[in-house]
Every structure is written in C-alpha cells, then in structure tokens.
C-alpha cells in the first residue's frame, strides 16, 4: 500500500505500543487481583488486548490476532459481568498476559510461537467462554480482500450486446438516511465511479414548496450502470444505507436483447406510499432483501442504449451536475484551513544513540566549563568580577543541563519489576510454591542502561529467592507463617544511589549449612572463625550452591558470584542480610548513572587519580605506631582494633617504590561490598567532585586496578580507580624488603 | 479542496496508519486519542468526515458519536465507525448512535478512501 518505510516505522511503533499496553494489562490485572476492582479497570485490560489485536490484524500477525481475540472475548465476558474475576481466573489472565507478551515478542522478531506453550492457555481461556465460533476469527474478518464473484455473471455477460453487464439500480432514500449523515449525491457519485452510468431522478413525490419538509426524503433515483465490476461492488456502495432506503439492483444485460424499448414504469415503491414510508422506517428492509439478490431482468428494464427516459415524470440528470436533493440538510462543508496539528503525544521516542551522543556532549561541556573556570582562576581575575560571576552562573546551568540530560535516560523501574513478576509466577508454578510478589517504589527512575543490564542478575536473584529463600507451604504453616510466601521487590533513591532490594520471608540463611558446604568445597578452612556477615558472604563465592537437590530453576550453573559480578560491572554493590526465621534481604546499591561519578581526586607520585567516592569509608592520617609488619614487604594498619592490609597507591600502580616512612601520610579506608577493607596510602587529596566517565576499555582493554578515565578541569587526563580490582590484585608492598635494607646497611 | 478528516482512536498504531493512509490519499487528517479528546479537537475543526473507534477510554465511540450529533453543526457530518467486529448488532448499535457507516479493522486504505468518498463526496482527489 505504501513505500516500506512508513509502514516499517508504524510496525516498530506498534510493538512499542504493545509493550505499553501489556504493562497496562499487567497493572490492571494486579489491581483486580488485589480486590480493588471497578468497571474501568476491567475495561482498561480489555482495551489493551483489543488494541493489540487491532494492530496485529493490520500487520497480518495471525498468531497474535488469534490469541488476543480469544483473550479479549474472555475479558469481554468479565466486563459484562458474566465471568467473575476470581483469583484463579486472574492467575489464568496473568499467564495469558505472559503468553501474549511472548507472542508479541515472537511476532516482532518474526519467530513462530511455539504452539505447545500457547495452546494449553488458549484452551483454558476457551473453557471459560465455551468454544468460539470459528467464523468470528475468520481471517476474512481481518484481511479485507476483494473477491470476484463470477456466479451467474458468465451467462449474462455473454448475453450482453456490448460485452459489459448492465445493472439497474433503483434507490429511494428515506428520511433516516439523511439523519445518519449519508448523502445520496455521494453514493450515486461513488456508483458512477464503477462504470458508465445513466441517472434518472424521480421527483414525482416532491410536494408543493409550501408543504415541503426540508428534512424529508422525496426523491428517488434510477441508475443504469454499465460495468465490469461484480454486483457485490454495487451492493457494497449501499452498505451504509441498508435499511435506510428502498433499493433494488437488477442485472438487465439479458433484458437488453429480449426486451426492446419499454416505457419506464413508476419506480418502486409506489409514489403514493413514498410519503407513508418515511414514517415507517422498518418497511423497506424485509421487502427488499430478496429482490436485491435476484438477477432476473426486471420488467421495468429499459434499453441501456437509450440515454434519456421518455417517461414524463423522470428528469434526466447527468452525474456531474446532480443537484443536491431538497431534503439534504448537510451544508456544503466550508473550506477548512489546514487541520491544526493535534496535540502531540506526551512522549517522544528517540534513538538511544542520539541520547548517548547528547550525554557525551554534555560531558564535554562539563569538562570544558571546568577548564574555563580553572584558567579564569589562574589568570588572577578577582572572584567578584563580572567574568567570575558569569562563570558561576554558567556552572550552575551546566549542572542543570547535565541533570536534565541524565533524566532523559532515566526510566521507572516498573517495566523491570513487571518482568520480575512474571519470573515469580513462572518459577513458583514450576516449584509448586504459592508466592506473592510485593513491589515497592516502582516509579523510581534509573538509567535505562542500568535497567537493561540489571534484568539478568535480578532474574537470578528472584529465582533464588523463590527456590531457596522460601520454604514450602507445609514448613511455612508449621512455622506459623501464612501459607503463601512473599517476596518483596523494592526500589528507592538513597543518598545519590539507587537501592534495589529483594527480600523473602523465608527461614533465613542456614548459616551452619552454608559453613558446612563451604568447608566441604574447601572454600574455607574448617576452623576458620567467621562472623555471620562473613558466612553470608560465602554465598557469593564462585561455585557455591546450598540447594540439597539442584532444582531445574536456580541450578543452572549460575551462582551468586555471577550476579555479584554483573552488579559490580554496573558500578554497584550487593549485600546480604538475613535473620533466622524471618527472611533474607539482598540489597543492590547502584550509581544513578553510568556516565558521571562522584569521586575523590587524589595525588600519588605526581599523578592525579580519581577514587570513586562510594568505595571510601573514611580518610585518616597514618600514624607510625599503628603500622604492623606482616610479611617481608607487607604491613597492616590498625584502625580501631581492626587490622587492615595497607597498600600504597603510588607503589601499586608502579609509579614509584614504597616509601621508607609513611608517618603522616593520608590514608583512604576503602571497602568492597562484602566488607573486605584496605587502607590505601595516597600522597594528597585534592578535592571531591563529579567526574565524567570516559571508557578506556575500547582502546586499552582491561587495565588492572583502573576502571576508566576522566578529563580534569585543567585538561589533564586522570585515571579512575577500580578499588575492588585494585584490592584483589594488590601486592601490598609498603616496605622495602629486609634484604634491601641489609644491603643498605 | 481536499477532505479534512478527524480520526479518533486510542491505539497509536491505528492512528499512525490512519494518518498515513489519509495523507497518502491527499486528505488532511486530524487525530485524537479518545472521545473526550476528539470533542476537544472538533471544537475548532469543521471536518468533512469523522472516523472513530468504539473501544476507547474516557469516552467511547458510541458516546462520542452521540455527543457529536448533539451539536447542531455536526448533526449531519458523516461519521464512520472503525470496528474489529463486523457483527450486525455492532453496526446496528453504531447506526443507532448516529454513525453514517463503518469500516472493518484492519482497514484496507483503498476501501477507507472509497468509504470516505462515499459519505463525504469527492474532495479533490477523484
């Protein structure tokens, strides 16, 4: 119908719309399930499925149409109050919504949906309504196509003198036709588009002007149409006015030959009745239905060759100048000025790449502004000068722009949470556990990239919670808990970071068992003393699994270590807290964005480096008496009765050899999420500021201890440290080995 | 003179397709998202014809048609109903509400254009 581009675009936008509709559907179902039902909620669900079906039909997505149709029919029953939205029905609807989502995805990717997953639910839906008449979902309903009807036309067209069948159409509107907004003029004009037409207008029923009701129908027309189009097309023209007019369509091609000139008989119905007829709108339809279908030449037929009727009561009217019937009440539409644009949608879809580019540009702007500030300061311009003050405003604006741009990428976590709702449903069903998911703070906004990359680790955590976190129903009842397990998914903004929590109300971590497993797997030595937090942290060790039997859910060879790595890749941390008997909570803490970082700018051996602020617990001054020698090259630092490995940043990165005396040096106490700490010696602390992250991976690959780089206000490049990586690869050299000292004498 | 058409549908996809089909036919489409929005748009518009969906939030197609017909200047403006079902009772209900005709969704652009010409005249494109 069109060049592929606009349609492809509409198709793409259809699938975006589907996602929105599915979200609305999920919300609606959740709301109904919570008992907070009103008619509109059901309506919203119905419309969501209905719209998906409508769009799917337009793109010929048969699987989708079929499923959506069945689903919609059931929802319509709920809407009509014929099916009660019981809990079980809602669960089925939720499953159906999941499958609908699958089919949408598959349709988008041009993948055939697996009937094995679709059919059972389809059957269950069907069971609620009883089988649908196949006709209702007949493809013809969705793929309008012109059908050529040959039927009896072969004979008639052979018989026709000029080779084209001729139809005589008698058309007499009733008053209601005008009230419905139809217009005989347009209908007749549409008819003439089908072939060559001769039109006669019957004005015999028009009363004298003084008696004329301007809204009444007083005219009738006889149209002789010579056309190669099937009779169906003619009938279709009058589709909208069926029942609003007296109509006969007859094929008079044969009559041409058989019946020569015959005078025109008064058009049907009898003019006497024509006026009564307007008060009796039911009259025309039953009478005319059979006659419309007869193809037998009517006696009233007149040769098609005659262009004018010799009947006195008929006035020949040429198509082009057919007058507006007196009864027409529709004023000629005035020339409308170009339709004003309809209020644009509240949302704009933008290619993520463009946003990325904007984010990068703003990053450059921030850097540029910082450089400008620095050179203004260096040039000795007083701070109260207009330049400096203007620069102050500029800084403020830059920060605002930066925040706004970051907001573009921010998305509510709702879509992510809905995906998790599905994971809960599926995994609880396969384990035969009854689990409720409670979501809190789904409007919390997080960078889109973060949301996307969070889906996998979160899925795994949810599966774990259902599988290992929650006990089965019997154990729950024995423990005096409600039969249904509960998993809470929470999102919130806390002190400039995003917090996502997955909690269950299960028995909590069985620490004795965790310890036992860790010992069996030789992850820890048997007599190692471990705090509760340290035992919990064992769950994150590679290859750890507490399930006595590996279930088909979580035991997929993916451990919590993978989860932790994924989250660390996002610049996040994950922590566990567990209370025996009441449950376990996993807390993920993430930076708001992946593009900007709060960092502490430090100096080490004349190099400037940035330490992510999130990793720094505290800063302190090193005192010689707190240092303890541990190995030939390593030392530890005592911080409030705890010994922490000491490392020298300058030495770790190979900028210089360890110093002989660290007394009075600045120490940053850094920590990883599992509580492993280290004391890092730096030479100076410059400032604390936001830095724009510039990836290094593309150019240099992974550099140990380094996460990325940034450009500072003076235009110099500074490396951003990866404290976790640094700590794991650290050599801890803070002493010149004894041998050296010996040599030195 | 080209036909000016107001199309009301809550599905963005269908609106996009209507806009495309109508623009390609040389018509001048205005779009609205539901019945209430449709009435708002209609208040500063004198369309040659109106196309409306039935299932819509806030104000459905039937309500919209009735509200349009209640306005003196639109009592005979052609209104086509977009429906996924071609069930006779749906047509009857649409007509009872004051619709001029109907188009079965998904619509064929040519048929849509023909139907519009059938109710609103030729415009400039025939």
- How many domain regions of chain A? 5
Relative helix content of chain A: 40-55%
Number of strands of chain A: 23
The SS-based structural class of chain B is alpha/beta
Known CATH architecture of chain B = 3-Layer(aba) Sandwich
Number of strands of chain B: 5
What is the CATH homology-level superfamily of chain B? Response regulator
Strand content of chain A: 15-25%
Rounded to the nearest angstrom, the radius of gyration of chain A is: 40 Å
Give the integer mean of the pLDDT values of chain B: 83
Structural class of chain A: alpha+beta
Which spans of chain B have pLDDT < 50 for at least 5 consecutive residues? none
Note poorly predicted spans of chain A: 134-161, 256-345, 547-557, 740-745
Can you give keywords for this protein?
heterodimer; A: 745 residues; alpha+beta; Four Helix Bundle (Hemerythrin (Met), subunit A); 5 domains; B: alpha/beta; five-stranded parallel β-sheet; 5 helices
Record the SSE blueprint.
The complex is a heterodimer of chains A (745) and B (126).
Chain A: H1 4-33, H2 39-58, H3 62-79, H4 87-108, H5 115-129, H6 139-142, H7 153-159, E1 166-173, H8 175-179, H9 184-192, E2 196-202, E3 220-226, H10 231-237, E4 245-251, H11 253-258, H12 271-279, H13 284-293, E5 314-317, H14 352-378, H15 386-409, E6 410-412, H16 414-431, E7 435-440, E8 445-447, H17 448-469, H18 473-478, E9 485-494, E10 497-504, H19 511-520, H20 532-537, H21 560-569, E11 573-579, E12 583-591, E13 596-604, E14 607-612, E15 616-621, E16 627-629, E17 635-639, E18 642-648, H22 649-652, E19 666-671, E20 677-682, E21 684-692, H23 697-700, E22 706-711, E23 717-721, H24 723-729, H25 738-744
Parallel strand pairs in A: 7-9, 14-23, 18-20
Antiparallel strand pairs in A: 1-3, 1-4, 2-3, 2-5, 6-8, 9-10, 10-12, 11-12, 13-14, 13-21, 15-19, 16-17, 17-18, 19-20, 22-23
Helix pairs in contact in A: 1-2, 1-4, 2-3, 3-4, 3-5, 4-5, 14-15, 16-17, 17-21
Chain B: E1 4-8, H1 12-24, E2 28-32, H2 35-43, E3 49-53, H3 61-70, E4 79-83, H4 88-97, E5 101-104, H5 109-120
Parallel strand pairs in B: 1-2, 1-3, 3-4, 4-5
Helix pairs in contact in B: 2-3
């Amino acid at each position: 119908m069109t060049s592929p581009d606009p349609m492809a675009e509409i198709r793409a936008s259809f699938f975006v719309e589907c996602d929105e509709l599915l979200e609305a559907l999920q919300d609606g179902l959740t709301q109904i399930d919570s008992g907070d039902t009103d008619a509109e909620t059901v309506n919203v669900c119905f419309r969501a499925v209905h719209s998906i079906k409508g769009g799917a039909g337009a793109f010929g997505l048969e699987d989708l149409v079929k499923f959506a149709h069945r689903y919609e029919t059931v929802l319509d029953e709920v809407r009509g109050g014929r099916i009660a939205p019981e809990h079980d029905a809602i669960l089925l609807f939720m499953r159906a919504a999941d499958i609908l989502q699958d089919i949408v995805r598959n349709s988008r990717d041009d993948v055939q949906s697996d009937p094995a997953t679709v059919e059972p639910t389809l059957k269950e839906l069907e069971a609620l309504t009883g089988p649908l008449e196949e006709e209702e979902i007949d493809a013809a309903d969705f793929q309008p196509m012109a059908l050529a009807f040959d039927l009896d036309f072969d004979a008639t067209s052979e018989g026709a003198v000029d080779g084209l069948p001729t139809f005589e159409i008698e058309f007499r509107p009733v008053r209601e036709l005008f009230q419905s907004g139809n217009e005989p003029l347009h209908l007749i004009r549409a008819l003439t588009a089908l072939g060559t037409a001769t039109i006669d207008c019957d004005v015999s029923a028009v009363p004298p002007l003084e008696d004329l009701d301007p809204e009444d129908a007083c005219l009738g027309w006889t149209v002789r149409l010579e056309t190669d189009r099937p009779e169906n097309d003619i009938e279709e023209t009058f589709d909208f006015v069926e029942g609003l007019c007296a109509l006969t369509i007859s094929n008079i091609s044969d009559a041409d030959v058989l019946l020569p000139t015959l005078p025109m008989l008064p058009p049907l119905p009898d003019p006497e009745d024509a006026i009564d007829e307007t008060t009796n709108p039911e009259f025309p339809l039953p009478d005319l239905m059979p006659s419309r279908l007869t193809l037998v030449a009517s006696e009233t037929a007149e040769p098609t060759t005659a262009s004018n009727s010799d009947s006195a009561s008929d006035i020949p009217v040429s198509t082009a100048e057919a007058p507006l019937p007196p009864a027409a009440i529709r004023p000629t539409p005035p020339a409308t000025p170009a339709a004003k644009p309809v209020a644009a949608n509240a949302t704009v879809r933008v290619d993520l790449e463009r946003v990325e580019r904007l984010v990068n540009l703003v990053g450059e702007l921030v850097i540029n502004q910082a450089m400008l500030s620095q050179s203004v300061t260096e040039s000795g311009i007083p701070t109260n000068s207009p330049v400096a003050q203007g620069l102050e405003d500029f800084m403020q604006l830059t920060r605002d722009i930066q925040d706004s741009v970051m907001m573009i990428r921010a998305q509510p976590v709702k879509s992510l949470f809905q995906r998790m709702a599905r994971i809960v449903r599926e995994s609880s069903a396969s384990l035969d556990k009854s689990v409720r998911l409670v979501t809190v703070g789904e409007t919390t906004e997080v960078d889109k990239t973060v949301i996307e990359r969070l889906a996998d680790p979160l899925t795994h955590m949810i599966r774990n919670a259902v599988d290992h976190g929650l006990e089965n129903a019997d154990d729950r009842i024995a423990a005096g808990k409600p039969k249904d397990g509960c998993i809470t998914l929470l999102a919130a903004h806390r002190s400039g970071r995003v917090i996502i929590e997955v909690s269950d109300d299960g028995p909590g971590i069985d620490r004795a068992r965790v310890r036992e497993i860790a010992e069996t797997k030789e992850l820890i030595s048997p007599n190692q003393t471990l705090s509760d937090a340290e035992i919990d942290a064992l769950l994150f060790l590679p290859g750890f699994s507490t399930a006595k039997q590996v279930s088909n859910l979580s035991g997929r060879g993916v451990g919590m270590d993978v989860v932790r790595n994924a989250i660390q890749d996002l610049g996040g941390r994950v922590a566990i807290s567990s209370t025996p008997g009441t449950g376990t909570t996993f807390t993920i803490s993430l930076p708001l964005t992946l593009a900007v970082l709060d960092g502490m700018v430090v100096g080490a051996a004349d190099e400037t480096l940035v330490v992510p602020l999130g990793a720094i617990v505290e800063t302190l001054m090193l005192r010689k008496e707190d240092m303890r020698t541990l190995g030939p090259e390593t030392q530890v630092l005592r911080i409030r009765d705890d010994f922490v490995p000491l490392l020298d940043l300058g030495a770790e990165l190979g900028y210089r050899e360890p110093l002989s005396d660290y007394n009075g040096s600045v120490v940053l106490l850094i920590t990883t999420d599992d509580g492993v700490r280290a004391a890092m010696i730096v030479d100076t602390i410059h400032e604390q500021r936001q830095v724009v992250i510039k990836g290094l991976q593309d150019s240099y690959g992974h550099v140990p201890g380094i996460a990325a780089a940034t450009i500072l206000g003076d235009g110099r490049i500074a490396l951003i440290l990866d404290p976790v990586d640094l700590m794991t690869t650290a050599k801890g050299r803070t002493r010149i080995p004894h041998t050296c000292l010996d040599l030195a004498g | 003179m080209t036909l000016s058409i107001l199309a009301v549908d809550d599905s963005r996809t269908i609106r996009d397709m209507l806009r495309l089909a109508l623009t390609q036919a040389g018509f001048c489409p205005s779009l609205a998202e539901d019945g209430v929005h449709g009435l708002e748009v209609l208040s500063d518009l004198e369309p040659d014809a109106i196309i409306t969906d039935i299932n819509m939030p806030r104000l459905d197609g039937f309500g919209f048609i009735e509200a349009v017909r209640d306005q003196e200047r639109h009592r005979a403006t052609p209104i086509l109903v977009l429906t996924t079902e071609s069930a006779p009772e749906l047509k009857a209900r649409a007509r009872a509400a004051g619709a001029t005709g109907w188009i079965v969704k998904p619509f064929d652009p040519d048929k849509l254009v023909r139907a519009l010409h059938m109710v609103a005249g030729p415009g400039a494109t025939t």
